[in-house]
Amino acid sequence: MTTQKLNRAFGSNIKKKFGQFLSMYELDIYDFETKFSDLEGDMIFTLEHRDYKDEIYFRAYSDDFQDAEFEIAPADRLNTDVINSSLHHCESAISDWVSNAAREITAIKEEEIEQTAQKIKKLISPHLEKCITDPDNYFSPSEHTILNERLDSLEEAFKEHREIFNLTQQSLEELTVLINEIKASSEIETQQRWYDRTLDKFGVWASRIDKVEKVVKAIEKGSNLLEKASNVVDSIPM
Predict the structure, then answer these.
(1) What pLDDT digit, counting tens, does each position of 124-181 carry?
(2) Where are the alpha helices (DSSP H) in 130-190?
(3) Count of domains observed in the chain
(4) pTM check: above 0.90
(5) What angle, rounded to 10 degrees, do the helices at 90-129 and 225-234 form?
(6) Are both 144 and 193 inside the same structural domain?
(7) In 51-197, which ranges are E strands?
């Protein structure tokens, strides 16, 4: 059997096992890239996450298709590690690595969600701050009316620019429920408590938006569409 044929059979088996390991942790194989050498060489194959290439990868090196070196990230206790082993043991090594990768992906995504939620809260906060006239007291009837108008304006701004913000119909329906909850809470909470809890609620809603980074990018590029859409209502004094 030639080295080229051996590599193809070997590669086919690795891809199959890799897919099985990923499915155990409900990870999508299409989020990963698999690369194999067709001819004899130092690197036999590499597995890496498409979005986190520098944090999540498995690289196998071998000169003779027997003894091997596995360069992995993340490892059991370290961010990266190098394991000297045999290609015959690579399936076990990949299985262990996928387990570590699953935990790392969860941690990365949780951090990304928190960061984007904070940015969304920062975007929303100027609109809410204008509603706060006496933090320790409740809203007056007239203040409550204007507050509702501002919330309606905010909701319409999201709906009007739903494509830019990558909002699905489900996200918009959840936004409507959220706005109604916020309106109701403004009748029973002090202004400061209402402000703090409303920001948190918007953060939770934003964390469920698919590819919420598109919202952030639109803001960072200066396309503050929410400000433009609600400036008329915001100009009304409380």
Answers:
(1) 787 788 788 899 999 998 888 888 888 888 788 778 877 776 678 888 899 899 999 9
(2) 141-160, 169-185
(3) 2
(4) no
(5) 20
(6) yes
(7) 57-61, 67-73, 81-86
